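Now for a chain:

_____
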Amino acid sequence: MMNEYSKDLKEAIEKMMTLIENTSSEVNTYLQELKKIVATRADKKKGKKPTYATATKKCGSVIVMNPTITQNSKETREDVRNHIKPVDLRIGILNTKSINNGGVAIVCKNE
């Protein structure tokens, strides 16, 4: 009886090993395909750099605000926020950036 169990156990182990080998080879096949796809996409992206014109088209228009008195960019930004209401003017502000001499560059969605 013990011999019968060991024979069944051996068969079960052999079936499991075969299943694992088949699954492993399928996984390797899928992995190779994914590597090819990633390499292809990376090659496509390498060749296409955006030009300066296309990169700046996306941002809309830029307004440069320079202070009339000597102050830093943080103070200029606060003054602009306190005195100009973008909602009332119907402009969408995408970004602000500090520039030299206490100025602020404001990137707007529309002109």
About this structure: The mean pLDDT is 77. The beta strands are 61-65, 93-98, 104-108. The chain is about 60% helix and 15% strand. Residues 57-108 form one domain.
